[in-house]
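FORM 7B: Structural annotation worksheet

SECTION A. Query
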Amino acid sequence: MKRGDKVIAVTPDMPLNDNDILLLVGRRKGIVALASTPGKKLNAEDGPEMPMKTSEVF
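SECTION B. Predicted structure
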């Protein structure tokens, strides 16, 4: 999670603030099921570099 200019670890009991930025990983259907309105989607945000392996599934 990014809060202000800091990247911090999330705990299960941590309350979220209005301007927190979260990186959610999973299938869209599952993520949307977590909340009725997940919030604004961002294409990119400055933060820690994280290599990500991707693959296309047909």
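SECTION C. Observations
Residues 28-34 form the longest helix (7 residues). The mean pLDDT is 75.

SECTION D. Sign-off
Analyst initials: ____
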